[in-house]
């Protein structure tokens, strides 16, 4: 065992990078095998036996399953997947995915940034002001925010927008849609992250170095927001990495509910029409985002906490 730092840090990053690459390759092979063996294909949606046969021949869907899998895996591993034409759009899937992924990352990035700032402040404040009115209100809000499912939240939000505020569908433009999706993402992410931050901060405030700081006569606000805050990021980043798949899952649900033109909506369409290249492209991008964020959070946890040791 040795602490992260210097050459050891380089070895750790190299090891984690190799693990990320291996994980990505395994995911590619598994996903391709599953998708190709799913019942039905893109040509199944066409009327007429002759047209179906023609479409299968044109798209290579009449080839043996093993050949289809090898061709798709080869195109992915050689970096040619995103130049393969989508069955539905008849353009390279890279051109289809780029604007969609950009919109989704913008939505998730803004929501994640805002919820991180607000939740860290609220979590630290409620941990400091334990059992106060603010603490009770925030805890109740967190429980409600985590417990209420989207199938209930969606009609409530739509009722408020279109009946209480009298917003017409004519004003339901892209910028309005982005704001609504950010608000809904915050309603999901904020309670979850505030709950975690509060629990971590309560644990940190019980540590010996906090007791020492109090014995030195430092103000409680300085102890909490200067000394305590420095020690919550490692655990917080770890929890964020574990929950990044949940954030993406609920983000996809929000996109589908509010018809936001993002990765979730495109993935739903690709699976509906059995567009294999687009299905694989959407799923691989989603998997890589999850792997990449976990990779970044692992590295940050090691850099921020010198007490972490690795083998």
TrEMBL record:
Keywords: Cell membrane, Membrane, Transmembrane, Transmembrane helix, Transport. It comes from Clostridium manihotivorum. It is a multi-pass membrane protein. It comes from the Bacteria. It is found in: Cell membrane. GO terms for cellular component: plasma membrane. The keyword S-adenosyl-L-methionine does not apply. This is ABC transmembrane type-1 domain-containing protein.
